[in-house]
Amino acid sequence: MIDSVLATSNSARETVLWIASDLFYRGGVRAVGMELIVERSGVAKTTIYRHFPTKDALIEAFLEREDHDFWRQWEAVVGSHAGEPRRALSALCDWIGDRVSRDSYRGCPQINVAAEFADVGHPARKVAHRHKSEMVERLTALCRELDMSTAPLRAHQIGLLFDGAFMSNGRLGNVGAAWILNDAVERLVGS
Questions:
Q1: Do 183 and 93 form a contact (C-beta atoms < 8 A)?
Q2: pTM of structure
Q3: Rounded (5°) CA angle 127-77-157
Q4: CATH assignment of 1-53, among 3.30.70, 1.20.120, 1.10.1760, 1.10.10
Q5: Of 171, 142, 174, whose CA–CA distance to 159 is shortest?
Q6: pLDDT digits (tens, 9 = 90+) for 100-139
Q7: Which Gene3D superfamilies does UniProt cross-reference here (predicted)?
Q8: Taking the domain 60-189, which CATH number applies?
């Protein structure tokens, strides 16, 4: 009995998070109300608030899920080129280029949500800040593998390029986002 209650509870939580994530990404977190999430998920508001005590907690869970999924994909891309930092950087450019060229792509969820909240103490801003810091740390590690004395600087520059691509609003899709990123990163790290 307890197992079925827990399974139902976890299922409701995942349903709400899945629906909210889709709505938040497509419409922005401020534009999506809890009533719409209740309506689309079919989960009672009391159940939603049992799992997510506030809308901010739901937004934070959305960004945490996006963060986890992003790093899982990043690891797969970089991991397929272990010990080959130049090829790993190129593969990241290809992956990001493909990502930002999708028809449904609406920008980086972390940047989008952070832009909606002015308060740097907001949970969403904290998750977004941690996500972007993590990107610079990972890029620094790749640049250090290239024996670059300027690894932290180059990592920040590459991070800015990636963030620019994430916010390109599809402009790079028809001109070759991966090619543009690869060319820029190559110029930064040298051949």
A1: no
A2: 0.88
A3: 60
A4: 1.10.10
A5: 142
A6: 988 888 889 999 998 999 899 999 999 999 999 999 999 9
A7: Tetracycline Repressor, domain 2
A8: 1.10.357.10
